[in-house]
Amino acid sequence: MSSTPKIYVAGHRGMVGSSIVRTLLAADHPASALVLRTHAELDLCNQAQVQAFFATEKPDQVYLAAAKVGGIHANNTLPADFIYQNLMMQANVVDAAFRSGVKKLLILGSSCIYPRLAPQPMGEAALLTGTLEPTNEPYAIAKIAGIKLCESYNRQYGQSHGIDYRSVMPTNLYGPGDNYHPENSHVIPALIRRFHEARVNQAPMVTIWGTGSPKREFLYVDDMASASVHVMNLPQAIYSQHTSPMQSHINVGCGQDISIAELAQLVGQTVGYTGAIDFDASKPDGAPRKLMDSSRINALGWQAQVALQDGLQQAYQDFLKNHA
Ligand SMILES: NC(=O)C1=CN([C@@H]2O[C@H](COP(=O)(O)OP(=O)(O)OC[C@H]3O[C@@H](n4cnc5c(N)ncnc54)[C@H](OP(=O)(O)O)[C@@H]3O)[C@@H](O)[C@H]2O)C=CC1
Ligand SMILES: C[C@H]1O[C@H](OP(=O)(O)OP(=O)(O)OC[C@H]2O[C@@H](n3cnc4c(=O)[nH]c(N)nc43)[C@H](O)[C@@H]2O)[C@@H](O)[C@@H](O)C1=O
Q1: Closest atom of ligand 2 relative to the 185 alpha carbon
Q2: Is the CB of 199 under 6 A from ligand 2?
Q3: Can you give the residue ranges of the NAD-dependent epimerase/dehydratase domain (predicted)?
Q4: Which residues are catalytic?
Q5: In a 10 Å sphere around its CB, with 0-12 CB exposed, 13-18 middle and 19+ buried, how is residue 134 labelled?
């Protein structure tokens, strides 16, 4: 490998992928050594296209931040899209990367890989110890397959081909570049839009899905990007001290969670909405709680930097600039 690795960021126009690109450029990685393709240019579900792309470009490193992504409603109503597309993207990218000689690859999974009622906080060892949350089981199964793809290629080819494929499991993310779709987005962008529109239209009430009692841990997107680059660049000797061949994934969270009712108050304050809030319990709550134990990545030298109140301000500014 040359001293400046050629890096492919898959999903570079998405929320996390675009932040990974910003992070690499800010660390003086030359733009000319980044390989980027839009979805229209390269459909990662298409095996022939993916094999041809890797055979031609031969990157040194790959960040897989492309995925079929959405909130509780999208996951619940489009289960076939979530399992099929995520399985295909991961299998195509990992195998084509391997065949073209990629030594270092990082997959982004999700905290929903853990059982619905896993003991809190959820450590990496909780994987495959119980039943998954039904609203996102298909997506979670695909994300678990992503971890196992990396581990299986490492176990079969790590020694012979010198590959080292890793995976990180982000908690719920938010920030600039998020998807603000009214139904298909995650809770933070959905509430930013709903509270903003209620303030502008002087609506007396904003309705929140579910009971408000579920708790979630939220991480600002730039923290997720810095964690991804950090894990990619860890020396193998250090990474393998903290992981094992069949439990190699790394949780990435901020270590604190809040209830959806508390989050709604915070988003309302951020947006400047002064009306009432109510809850529609006919909508699904999803997992009651999914706080991750991030002590593994903390021991590896990474900590979240951005407090939720500050990150919400940044996200709202992004909404006002690009989506209002
Ligand atoms: N957002 C969150 O709260 C969380 C995200 N994650 C994970 O983090 C990663 C990044 O998520 P995030 O940035 O939020 O997602 P986004 O939806 O913002 O970005 C995903 C990107 O993937 C691209 N993409 C989707 N399908 C294909 C395809 N078939 N071929 C090529 N490109 C494709 C999209 O392009 P296009 O839009 O043009 O289709 C988009 O640029 C994902 O793996 C996700 O599962 C994990 C936990 C929480
Ligand atoms: C990241 C994670 O994202 C998804 O899981 P989730 O944690 O349930 O994510 P969510 O952001 O959609 O909801 C969080 C909570 O918030 C409540 N909630 C209130 N009001 C709105 C609302 O208006 N929109 C949404 N989406 N949720 C709302 C909602 O009822 C739930 O209790 C996975 O499918 C999977 O994709 C995954 O890995």
Answers
A1: 26
A2: no
A3: 7-242
A4: 139
A5: middle
Give tens-digit pLDDT for 142-174. Answer: 999 999 999 999 999 999 999 999 999 999 999
> Helical H runs in 162-259?
187-200, 221-233, 236-242
pLDDT, tens digit, 9 for 90 and up, residues 261-275: 999 999 999 999 999
Structure-token pair, residue 271:
């947006």
187 neighbors 259 (Cβ within 8 angstroms) = no
DSSP-based three-state secondary structure for 182: coil
Name which residue sits closest to atom 9 of ligand 1, judged by CA.
65
User: How remote is the CA of residue 96 from the centroid of ligand 2, in Å?
Assistant: 33
Nearest CA among 267, 282, 288 for reference residue 215: 288
**Model ipTM over 0.90:** yes
pTM for the model stands at 0.98
Q: Rounded to a whole number, what is the largest CA-CA distance in the chain?
A: 65
Exposure letters 89-103 (e unless 16+ CB within 10 A, then b): bbbbbbbbbbebebb
Question: Among candidates 229, 194, 219, 221, which has minimal Cα distance to 209?
Answer: 194
Residues placed in the known binding site for substrate: 194, 209, 216, 285
